[in-house]
Amino acid sequence: MKIVVTVGGSIIIKDGEPKKFKDYADVLKNINREHQVFIVVGGGRPARDYIGIARGLEASEAACDDIGIDVTRLNAKLLIMALGDNAYPAVASNFHEAVEYSVSNKIVVMGGTEPAHSTDAVGSILAEFVGADLMINATSVDGLYNKDPNKFADAKKFDEITPTEMMSILSSKENKAGTYEFFDMTAIQIIKRSNIKTLIVNGEDPKNLQKAIKGKIGTTIVPDSKL
Hints:
Blueprint: E1 2-7, H1 9-12, H2 19-32, E2 36-41, H3 44-56, H4 61-83, H5 95-102, E3 108-110, H6 119-130, E4 134-139, E5 144-145, E6 157-158, E7 160-161, H7 163-170, H8 185-194, E8 198-202, H9 208-214, E9 219-221
Parallel strand pairs: 1-2, 1-4, 2-3, 4-8, 7-9
Antiparallel strand pairs: 5-6, 8-9
Helix pairs in contact: 2-4, 3-4, 6-8, 7-8
């Protein structure tokens, strides 16, 4: 299978330590033995910090996004270091490069690509571009909820949800640089039009990526006709 993984920067760079990069690298290497793997890495707190400084300097939202993209690519470089010879040695800056690098049969690592696209949107477009069989979104909670489970005890987790239902939830969210939660509207529109099988899982434990491949875990985004 062709598998696209998106991992939030808030997961992989959360503690500012190399361990999470090493743990993800170990799991990705195992997956790559049987599947072709692409991974898109987010910016996390460092990206938000830099974006905050840029915004304080009255930079435009597009310029703030550009700063965030640079940080995601730094995180991608760190993951490539952790993967060693198992990864293509350069960060793919666009989807054509990702396809070109994948010919090596090595793991292809990306960060952001352009302003107004979260790394989840990049992952969705990449999945469409390469004809992925599965996309896994590794985030800070164990699926999609109707509200933040870290703040609300009565938050309801969805085992399955359609793209249209997700759009309804996302319609009330902000779309500023560094503020994306789960998927932005671009990401879910891509998932909808191409019926990309997508799972949202807790990325704190990288082994959840393997569980997502083998069976049901987290929240599954299913075509509108399925529910």
